[in-house]
Amino acid sequence: MPVILAENAELQIEEGRWRLYDSNNPDSMSAMFEVNRGSGILNYSATFGEKHGLPGTRLAMHYIKSVVVGFDQKTNRWRLGLYVAYEDDQKPQWSELVHWPTGQNREYADAAQRAGRILAEYVMCPLKLFGVTKTPSAARATITGPVVSHRRIDVEPSEVKARAQQVQLPKQIPGMWLGVTNKGLTTRLSKDAASSKGGEVAPAFQICEVDVDRHVLRLTPATGLLGAFFGGASGRNLKFDEVRNFEFRHLMQQSSRMQKSEEDGLMVEILTHQDIWEVYVTTANEAILIARTLHSRDGGMSRQRVQDVAGGAKIGEQYDAAVDYYRQHEEDQRQFEASRDWAYSVAVTFAGAMNCRMVETEVGDDISALNLEKGY
């Protein structure tokens, strides 16, 4: 079970449970603050609630407007807390849960952001950052990537080129195209694919072109107000020697909701698994998102398959229903692979054309079970 140390506090995170203990009282077996994913309730001690401005010993999750984490310049420390509003028209109030010792320490930054991301997932609310979002250490000055715990694989240029040669172009999925034009290797995104929906991040550029002759990567913004806001009217040109690598990032997220069963009227937790693939072009100072695909899968499909297999004879009795399910499963898998392969193809062909390294990273629920990585 991963343990995160803060100032005068210890965080214990395991699958579906986020708990905060008082490190000054090691004999206590009870958490000061506890969240169980999907429970709809935050539990805490009366003393903790009084100290942190929370009512009683329990609070419904729908009062939590966001989980907030960041570096406070005034106190010179990383802080993690909640924005709480008890009325719809009330301005959210800040309630700190925990903070770390003073200093812009890389380990504190990783710990705070990791703890905040998982807490926001379990409370099912937005995660908001303030202050700096990357640790200003010497390591961060030369290495880029996700700011949370993750897995990383570096692929050298020679291997990238070999992989790129195996990609058959053009590749196309709804709203996204990758291929070769008279201007070079090009991606084109529809306006919908290059626009933010529901607070999600989105590529700021509709067209990305690798000009091998001029050794330039051209980024053309989306048209209209959105493009002017994110990309600037004139777009951007990056010289090949300005690009450090292309990152192919895989994010795995799970969310849950409660739904009444039609069979017995009981509430059933419905899990949704979402895979997101993002491609970043990384320079010395920034990581620019140029492509993003996603695939969502409802947990109901897995439950249906378990019921079919366990039922045995039911498959014969309900042959049409079983065949329909497996067709849906096959189509779902096809969509999953198409979304993954398109984003991967962008990363590997662009990196291969520009003769630079590709970085593969993974961030997700299975990563959250690992200890904090020290080498990234």
Structure description:
By secondary structure, this protein is an alpha+beta fold. The protein folds into two domains: 3-142, no CATH class; 151-364, no CATH class. Helices cover 26% and strands 39% of the residues. The chain is built from eight helices and 21 strands. The strands form four sheets. It has a six-stranded antiparallel β-sheet with strand order 1-2-3-4-5-6. Strand 2 (9-14) and strand 3 (17-22) form a beta hairpin. The longest helix is centred in the last third of the chain and has 35 residues, at 319-353. The chain starts with a strand and ends in a 12-residue tail after the last strand. Mean pLDDT is 79; it is low at 132-144, 224-233, 302-315 and 365-376.
Question: Which radius of gyration do the C-alpha atoms yield?
Answer: 23 Å
Number of strands: 21
End-to-end gap = 21 Å
SSE order: EEEEEHEEEEHEHEHEEEEEHEEEEHHHE
Global outline: globular
Q: Report strand order across the widest sheet.
A: 1-2-3-4-5-6
SS-based structural class? alpha+beta
Low-confidence runs: 132-144, 224-233, 302-315, 365-376
Tally of domains: 2
| Beta strand % | 35-45%
**SS element count, helices:** 8
Helix content: 25-40%
What does the largest sheet look like? Answer: 6 strands, antiparallel
